[in-house]
Amino acid sequence: MPLERPALNPSDLEPRTGSTYPEPFPARVTPREKRALGLTKIGVNLTTLFPGKASALRHYHSHEDELVFVLEGEVVLRTDDGEQVLTAGQCAGFPAGARNGHHFVNRSAAPARYLEISNRDPEDSVEYPDEDLAFRKVGGEYVYTHKDGTPY
Q1: Phi/psi class of residue 134: alpha, beta or left (left: φ > 0; alpha: ψ in -120 to 50)?
Q2: Phi and psi for 110 in degrees, rounded to 5?
Q3: What SS3 class is residue 28?
Q4: Confidence category of residue 81, pLDDT binned at 50, 70, 90
Q5: Can you tell me whether residue 11 is helix, strand or coil?
Q6: What is the spatial distance between Cα 69 and Cα 87, in angstroms, rounded to a whole number?
Q7: HEC letters along 79-122
Q8: Is the pTM of this model over 0.70?
Q9: Would you call 140 exposed, middle or buried from its count of C-beta atoms within 10 A (0-12, 13-18, 19+)?
Q10: In whole angstroms, how far apart are CA 82 and each of 92, 103, 114?
Q11: Going edge to edge, which strands form the sheet with 42-49?
Q12: Where is 17: in which H helix or E strand?
């Protein structure tokens, strides 16, 4: 029997498999599958990260908290402090404004699945400490620039 809202089966949702990053960055994170779980004030994605891929470029947010909760498999959390392996049942949180670049990498031979949870803030901007890349939201659109402000 199919579920009716507010209940849902995430596997029935169409996954986003692309990336909004400008070239040459998308190849580091794609393919991956993100299924948005339908909220408006809180972003919740069920994400599948395939072997050899990163969740994102290493980054931190100005106005958005992030929490990642691993459901299946294994990911390597990379931060300014080093690396840690996270497995099913473990999580990591990143407070808004903390200048600690982070991302996850799947170095295993199997896909990993996790929940990404964050508040949605229209004032958010993102910094990428390892790349000549910056991000901000403008009128609901993603705008990527070089760190000096020139457009991609």
Answers
A1: beta
A2: -125, 155
A3: helix
A4: very high
A5: helix
A6: 9
A7: ECCEEEEEECCCEEEECCCCCCCEEEECCCCCCEEEEEEEECCC
A8: yes
A9: exposed
A10: 14, 11, 21
A11: 32-36, 42-49, 112-119, 66-72, 91-94
A12: none
